[in-house]
Amino acid sequence: MEDIDTVLCGPVQLQIHSKPVYGLVLWPAARVLAGWLAKFDSCGGPLLELGCGAGLCGMAFAKATGSAAVLTDGEDDVLELAERNVELNGLHGVDVRCLDLGFMQEEEGKALIEEFGKFPLVVGSDMIFEPGGTARVLAAADQLLDSEGGRCVIALCNQLENFVVTLEDQGEAKGFEVEALIRTQSGVSLVVLLRGKPAWKLPAFEELEEAPSHQADQPDKQTCDRADLLFA
């Protein structure tokens, strides 16, 4: 895979594409969600990341908690990049698996449940960009989330406000409770959907100040500019 940059996102080293290739770059909401997941103590089981891209969110959670994480995506080149990043960070408790949020979702979801059981925490970021995307994400959460006590956390840029509202409305129609809607100063919304009564608590959300960087103390403006291209 050519045109790869390595950036530092908190404790996670991340290889991303140096050109704005969907799924292979670091989008803004992923960074915000990863910063919050890095504050988690545990969720009582493995985390499942939908549309993982480079894998930042799942890896941030795994590094913070020492718990297992399963990163999923439907694109082969994205899964290849996520696998490289898992190896780069030495995270042996993180699995990368295929989950197509569409045609193969039900069968691939069944395979995940057979191996890992239902998940107490399902997350995703920057992965709803079309009207049908919300329904597919909720269908995956409905299938894979622990119905006795689980949370689904979806992070979206505020440019996609219509999808935030749709996610809340369709989530409630599907039997989820909207536990929280967090709007950040960085222009990202976090929607927390609840199913049942989880035994674990969410940590307080704190806005991050630093941006992903090639060096820990230097913001990577190029990465931020690439993310903006999607919404131009």
Can you describe this structure?
The strands form 2 sheets. A 7-stranded mixed beta sheet has the order 5-4-3-6-7-9-8, sandwiched between helices. A two-stranded antiparallel sheet has the order 1-2. It has helices at 28-37, 56-65, 76-88, 105-116, 131-144, 161-173, 221-228; strands spanning 4-9, 12-17, 47-50, 69-73, 94-98, 121-125, 149-157, 177-183, 188-196. The radius of gyration is 16 Å and the shape is globular. The two termini are 26 Å apart. α5 crosses α6 (161-173). The model is unreliable at 209-232 (pLDDT under 50). It is an alpha/beta fold and 232 residues long. The chain contains 7 helices and 9 strands; from the N terminus they run ββαβαβαβαβαβαββα. It is 34% helix and 24% strand. The chain has a single domain (4-196), classed as Vaccinia Virus protein VP39 (Rossmann fold, 3-Layer(aba) Sandwich).
